């Protein structure tokens, strides 16, 4: 039976980058491997169920159930170590319910759906941080805030080179958002974090509105995510 695995580059980046960021900003521990395993397989399970909703093919439910079981077994020890992780469950369920709503309306590419997904992925990063430190603090809040700010910008960029490439209004909004992303840390008194958003702004001005392949866009986003994680860790720890 053919494996059921997401093929979107952006989804994989959103899955891994916030979690890695939260782990590095907190206190990495061996159990983070189990927590990431749960995060990874629950993501695969949600994708499989979403595909079943769209196509009604039994194999999606089979794979979704298998992924969910592995994720469930993986998260048992982290939940026992840090029961506070249960607090994230309502948010994850709500975000996924919204995603399914858009899927049933055949509007899964809607900007609101993307933003809701980003909120879920950003919360995953906070979960990794809280699991390592055992506390909710200002770092957890800023981790969530800047992750959302960054990834909404990636949505603007990816749409500007694929689906909205010929839409001049979209490009205006994308450039405005990217510019405001650079200004936001300055306004909030965290000027050094503005550096994190310089490359995304340059990237948009160079490639925004240009015809590039999804693979090229994925490579650009991968490089962008690397600098986001690396710079954010360095600048928030300094």
Main attributes of the structure:
globular; 238 residues; single chain
Describe the structure.
The protein is mainly α and 238 residues long. It folds into 2 domains: 136 residues, no CATH class; 101 residues. It contains 9 helices and no strands. Helix 1 packs parallel to helix 9 and helix 5 runs antiparallel to helix 6. The longest helix is centred in the first third of the chain and has 24 residues. It starts with 8 loop residues before the first helix and ends with a helix. It holds the Pfam family YwiC. Keywords: Membrane, Transmembrane, Transmembrane helix.
Q: What gyration radius follows from the Cα positions, in whole Å?
A: 18 Å
Q: Give me the strand/helix succession.
A: HHHHHHHHH
For the termini, the CA-CA separation is: 50 Å
The percent range for strand residues is under 5%
Approximate shape: globular
Structural class: mainly alpha
Helix amount: over 70%
| Overall number of strands | 0
Overall average residue pLDDT: 94
Number of domains: 2
- Biggest beta sheet attributes: none
Low-confidence stretches: none
Count the helices. How many? 9
How does the SSE layout of this entry go?
Layout: H1 9-25, H2 32-55, H3 58-81, H4 89-104, H5 111-133, H6 138-161, H7 168-187, H8 198-207, H9 214-237
Helix pairs in contact: 1-2, 1-5, 1-6, 1-9, 2-3, 2-4, 2-5, 4-5, 5-6, 6-7, 6-8, 6-9, 7-8
Organism: Polycladomyces abyssicola
Transmembrane segments: 36-53, 60-79, 85-103, 115-134, 140-162, 182-206, 218-237
Pfam families: YwiC
């Amino acid at each position: 039976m053919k494996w059921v695995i997401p093929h979107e580059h952006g989804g994989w980046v959103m899955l891994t980058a916030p979690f890695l960021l939260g782990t590095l900003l907190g206190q990495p521990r061996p159990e983070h491997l189990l927590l990431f395993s749960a995060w990874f397989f629950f993501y695969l399970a949600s994708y499989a169920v979403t595909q079943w909703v769209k196509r009604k093919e039994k194999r999606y439910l089979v794979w979704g159930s298998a992924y969910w079981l592995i994720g469930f077994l993986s998260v048992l020890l982290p939940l026992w170590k840090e029961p506070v992780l249960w607090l994230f469950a309502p948010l994850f369920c709500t975000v996924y319910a919204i995603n399914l709503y858009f899927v049933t309306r055949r509007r899964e590419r809607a900007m609101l759906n993307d933003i809701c997904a980003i909120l879920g992925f950003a919360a995953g990063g906070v979960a990794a941080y809280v699991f390592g430190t055992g506390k909710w603090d200002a770092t957890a809040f800023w981790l969530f805030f800047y992750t959302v700010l960054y990834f909404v910008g990636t949505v603007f960029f990816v749409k500007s080179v694929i689906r909205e490439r010929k839409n001049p209004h979209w490009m205006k909004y994308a450039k405005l958002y990217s510019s405001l992303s650079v200004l936001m840390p300055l306004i909030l008194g965290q000027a050094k974090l503005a550096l994190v958003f310089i490359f995304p702004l340059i990237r948009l001005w160079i490639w925004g509105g240009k015809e590039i392949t999804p693979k090229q866009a994925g490579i650009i986003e991968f490089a962008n995510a690397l600098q986001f994680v690396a710079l954010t860790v360095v600048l928030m720890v300094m």
